[in-house]
Amino acid sequence: MRRFNHGHLFLRHTSVLGRAKTWLERRLWVQKLNNPLGVALVLLASLAVAWVMSSLSFRTGFVLYVVLVGAPLIVLCLFNVAFSIGMMLFVALMVPFVTKFVNVPIGTLLDLLILLGAVGILLRQIKERDWTFAKYPLSYMILIWLYYNAMQVLNPYAESKMAWLYTVRSVAIQQVVFFIGAYAFRNNRKAIFAVLKLIVLMCFAAALYGLKQQFFGFSAAETAWVMADPERFQLYYQWNMMRIPSFCYDPTTFGILMACFAIFCLVFMVGPVKIEHKLLWAVMLICSLWAMAYTGTRTAFALVPVGAVFYAGLILNRKVVLISGLLAVLGAGFVLKSTSSGVIFRIQSAFRPAQDDSMNLRLENQKKIQPYIQSHPIGGGLGSCGVWGKRFNPESELSKFPHDSSFVRMGVELGWIGLILYTLLHYVVLRTGLYYFIRCRDPLIKAIYAGITTWMFMLAVACYVQEAILQLPMNVIYNVFLALLVTLKNFDPAFEAREV
């Protein structure tokens, strides 16, 4: 590249050509097209691209669009790890929504982003050779979990290697996001708060879209997708109401997401933030609870008081405990009140497990599968039950087993050894959150630890009756939060002074 002589800009050119050359050089070399000329050139280029794409077939035009937009994003993700995490979160939210309408393996885009983030870190480690970001008890536990799931490909009881390949992505591989986040956040406070704001914005947008579905109806494409499968329609239409999924694939995942987000909002509503921010958190809390009610997800309804009680016990604040007690009394009265509303009846049924036929059926299924789990220490192989079991091995008895719970699924597919490891993983996660929460003194960091740890506890409880973590976008949010658990304390100087 030739060197530009800035001195030429100060020469007085008398000719028109000389003045035009000076004007152009100033905008190209000094201002770097950050001016009206640059905007005009971009607009002209976009018009040319739009004309070319309109003259092509839909498939070719779509590929061209992906190349033009995706190529710069891919390069940016490779060299900016924090940005790649933001892209992962956005894609994780959009993948379940988009897959309802297009028959394209768009989920591989998330795998590509994870690969780019991991490659970006490995390239940096050639020069840095600093692995301290991965030296935590939680990191070692996740590595053990990854190794055990990877070794399941050799499970002699597994009847399908393809089922393992499809399942290991959500059960284990996506936990690589934890290491990517731990590296990106280790000394980047700005990235931490940017990602937190993105997660909050995504959850709030999901709540608003869910309310749109409830009060303004599903779009024509969404309605066609729901009606295309009788079993899917039965899942969505219950108690004379349509359960709303928002951007998620099903109402259950969305309901659990809104329950966790609601308590997260509660943490900051009573936390060390400005009054105007408290009002904003209160609005998001109301919207998330409101949207959650229309999901008809009983697990989510039960998680709200569970999370509130855990948080109240965590901070041991007198006002919070009194408010929680008052809300508990009001909630008990609400549950006992008779009603003809399908929404309210659904909420009430969540607190009457003895009268819940669905819960009783799940408990019976758990008793039936216990002998199999006890006699198969490494399980029947990843993907042996659930969706992938039905697809790749439909004749197997395990593929017909309604596991429902994450813990039951781990016991069936990974055996009692895998179930122990999965339980230990939850224990180490909660211990990490509590450990750093107690030892941090910065009010904001302490509040974030309280919110994330409460979220993790609610998911651990939800895993007993649902696959709460394995679905998108919860899977990626969960692993990003794990990365925040081990990095947030780096920005509390008081914590560093006390750590031993």
The main sheet comes to: 2 strands, antiparallel
Widest sheet: strand order? Answer: 1-2
Average pLDDT, rounded to a whole number, is 82
How widely separated are the two ends? 53 Å
Percent of residues in helical segments? over 70%
Strand content: under 5%
Instruction: Give the topology string: H per helix, E per strand.
Output: HHHHHHHHHHHEEHHHHHHHHHHH
Number of DSSP helical runs: 22
Would you report the number of β strands?
2
Number of separate domains? 2
Shape: globular
Cα gyration radius (Å): 26 Å
Q: Which structural category do the helix and sheet elements fall into?
A: mainly alpha
- Low-confidence parts: none
What key phrases describe this protein's structure?
500 residues; mainly alpha; two-stranded antiparallel ribbon; 22 helices; 2 strands; 71% helix
Structure description:
- It is a single chain.
- The protein is an all-alpha fold and 500 residues long.
- It has two domains: 1-55, no CATH class; 132-498, no CATH class.
- The protein is built from 22 helices and two strands.
- It has a two-stranded antiparallel sheet with strand order 1-2.
- Strand 1 (237-238) and strand 2 (241-242) form a beta hairpin.
- Helix 5 (108-128) crosses helix 8 (176-185), helix 8 packs across helix 21 (474-487) and helix 14 (298-315) runs antiparallel to helix 15 (318-336).
- It is globular.
- It starts with 15 loop residues before the first helix and ends with a helix.
- The mean pLDDT is 82.
